[in-house]
Amino acid sequence: MIATKNYEQIANVSRDPGTNLFCATGKTEGKVQIDYEHPKMDEGFGEEYASYDNIKHGLFVYVEQIGSIVNVRIGAN
């Protein structure tokens, strides 16, 4: 679920059906938050080490612009 209001003004974000492959095309500078429906624990950590830092809650799409160059990054949250 895309949590950022009016995210369409920042980036076009799509997901290939049936996969975890995301594509983002930047429009203007900003950040788009995508929340997972079911957060996932980082592999390598057992339940006894569960903390906010070890659980993946979603993705962020960062759009930065310097002159005519637009940089888009997708990172885990």
Could you give the topology of this structure?
Elements: E1 11-15, E2 22-26, E3 30-41, E4 55-66, E5 69-76
Antiparallel strand pairs: 1-2, 3-4, 4-5
What do these coordinates show?
By secondary structure, the protein is an all-beta fold. The protein has one domain (7-76). It contains no helices and five strands. The strands form two sheets. The protein has a three-stranded antiparallel beta sheet with strand order 3-4-5, with no helix packed on it. It is elongated and about 40 Å long.
Overall domain count: 1
Low-confidence stretches: none
Overall helicity: under 10%
Secondary structure category: mainly beta
What value does the Rg take, in angstroms?
A: 14 Å
Terminal residue distance: 14 Å
How many helices? The count is 0
- Principal-axis shape equals elongated
Task: Please provide the ordered H/E string of secondary-structure elements.
Answer: EEEEE
Quick rundown:
With 77 residues, the protein is mostly beta strands. It has strands spanning 11-15, 22-26, 30-41, 55-66, 69-76.
Features:
mainly beta; three-stranded antiparallel sheet; about 80 residues; about 55% strand; about 0% helix
